[in-house]
Amino acid sequence: MANTTAAPACLQCETEIHVPAEAELGDILTCRGCGQEHEVLDVAPVVKLDLAPEIEEDWGE
């Protein structure tokens, strides 16, 4: 049996995204096609992804 769940598509380029079987909520997965980062929103019964939030510099605030 494969060590991955059903593979969702990238929200930018529609390349299939590899999702490890041990993926958890909040994990960040990167598209191999375009480099876009996706956040895991749900893992069961199917994997749901959304674009990962941009990390912004807070300049020590």
3D structure, described in words:
This is Alpha-aminoadipate carrier protein LysW. By secondary structure, the protein is mostly beta strands. It has a domain at 15-53: Rubrerythrin, domain 2 (Single Sheet). Helices cover 0% and strands 21% of the residues. It has no helices and 3 strands. It has strands at 28-30, 37-42, 48-51. A 3-stranded antiparallel beta sheet has the order 1-2-3, with no helix packed on it. The mean pLDDT is 86.
Write the layout of secondary structure elements.
Layout: E1 28-30, E2 37-42, E3 48-51
Protein name: Alpha-aminoadipate carrier protein LysW
H-E order:
EEE
Oligomer: single chain
The CATH topology of the domain at 15-53, please? Answer: Rubrerythrin, domain 2
Give the termini separation: 48 Å
Structure summary, number of beta strands:
3
The gyration radius over C-alpha positions equals: 13 Å
